[in-house]
Design goal:
- This protein has helices at residues 7-10, 17-24, 39-45, 48-58, 139-142, 149-182, 198-215, 242-256; strands at residues 2-4, 26-29, 34-38, 92-97, 120-125, 127-137, 186-189, 236-240, 269-272, 286-292, 296-310, 315-328, 334-339.
- With 349 residues, it is α+β, with helices and mostly antiparallel strands.
- Helix 7 packs across helix 8 (242-256).
Amino acid sequence: MKQSNAWYLRHIEPNTELGNILKECSTYNEKTKQWDVDLKQFATAVPVTKMNEFLSTMVNKIVVQKVFDITDGAEFPYLDFQAPDSEYGDTIELIAVQNLDYNGKDYDGTCDLSPNVPGVNTQYIYTTDKKFWKISVLPQVMKRAIIREGQLGALVGVIVSRLEYAYKKYLYINISADLSKVVGQTITLQGLGKNSTTDDAKKYLNECFQVAYKMAQFNTFFNSEGMESITPKGRATLYINASTMASLNVNAMASLLNSEKLDTKVFKDIKMVQFYNDDGTEDTNTLGYILDDRFYEFRVPIKESTSFFCPSSLITTYWLHAWIKRGYAPFINAVKFVAKNGTLDTHIE
């Protein structure tokens, strides 16, 4: 953003640090006979304390200040996986008892006292992440650039809220990356996008319904341990990306899911998510998941926030610590849908 206004130059001494930075961020416009100031470049180049001095000189020109939380309303669907944790101990042991042979034994009149101990499958979840985030503010200095007392509190509140946002986004990306690795059972489908037809959407939804119904039956395919694990109808959640959600809403759900003849209780919920790889890049091969609500969990045994005021710099620093346990139960049903052509149609016109 460029601003053509000599006011900035008149209110800053030319040979000061701010003046020199302003010169570097300005060009003279021969047509308008004014200096064009690149405010974005200027704001990036100026130290925080100096920026407040600059804003202080402008305070008589500002009549209204609005503080925006630009991430307000962000959804973090994987937070549903959080389970309560104890302050003591660390490792969580998940145990599944194997099923007996349904054929049993034929009665022959003898006394069979031989032991028949069922097998068990186990999985362990322990602390995998010990993270902290911090952010600093200078409220005493910032007051010089604020015209109303309440606005300072609102601004500091939004700044500090970045800690919780960073924590939730860290979980979002890392849980998504976990799921891409630990859900071993995959089904290949044609991806849905802007060019998909109603028939394409119905086929996709039909496949999802089939999987959910089969999960509720006697089946060993849907978990990596090959155990006969049952996911009752209405217990699994369908996770799909934005392109798929849009296509289903337009082409299938709007008519099908409102039909009295359709079983709308197949899934516990249908959630729109964005899928990620380990490195934080978008996973362009995954279409979605159907997950039993017991398949994945995370726990947060330690989540502490604190602040420290440095009297020499007038800087207040806020910290958020979070120790996280992440893991899954391989004997619980979970399926991943992958794109038939290997990539998704994510183009937005």
